[in-house]
Amino acid sequence: MSDEPDEELELTSALVPLFVIANGGSLPPEHAYERTALVSASEGAAASVRTLSPEARQVLDLVMDGFLSVAEVAAHTHLPLGVVRILLAQMEDSGLIVVRKPVPRAERVDRDVLNAVLDGLRARFGA
Q1: How many CA atoms lie within 13 A of 55 on its CB side?
Q2: pLDDT tens for each residue of 29-51
Q3: Which of 39, 52, 85, 102 has the CB geometry, 3.0–4.6 Å to 33, for a possible disulfide?
């Protein structure tokens, strides 16, 4: 045996398991916190920052001055999307954040209707 120090060991897993970060919470329904839903802090959220977990505090700091999508929050915190969704659900239940659902995609319009409108505009304004 030599007295040389061993090579530094790399950590291959997170120090804190994800279920601890999520406080044992279950995953909310997929439609509740879609990737494109916008998250912002509620007005009185700054007062309860001291009582939050480090991860929830980081999320609150990110959305304090504006809006971020759920996917952006996950990217900035380096947490899996499912864990972020659980944190957001817990924070929304506590009144710390407000989540705005994404605007639904517009329905496809009938091509015949669009052509009729275009023909009417051409007849009216001549083009």
Answers
A1: 23
A2: 766 788 999 999 998 877 777 88
A3: 85
- Element of type H or E holding 69: strand 68-69
**How far is 83 from 23, CA to CA, in rounded Å?**
10
Pick from 7, 71, 14: nearest CA to 39: 71
- Angle, vertex CA 99, rays to CA 94 and CA 103, nearest 5: 160
Alpha carbon dihedral 64, 45, 69, 75, in 10-degree steps, equals 70
Phi, psi angle pair for 27, to nearest 5°: -70, 125
pLDDT above 90 coverage of the chain, percent: 31
Residues 6+ apart with CB under 8 A from 55: 21, 77, 79, 87
Are 102 and 36 in contact, with CB atoms under 8 Å apart? yes
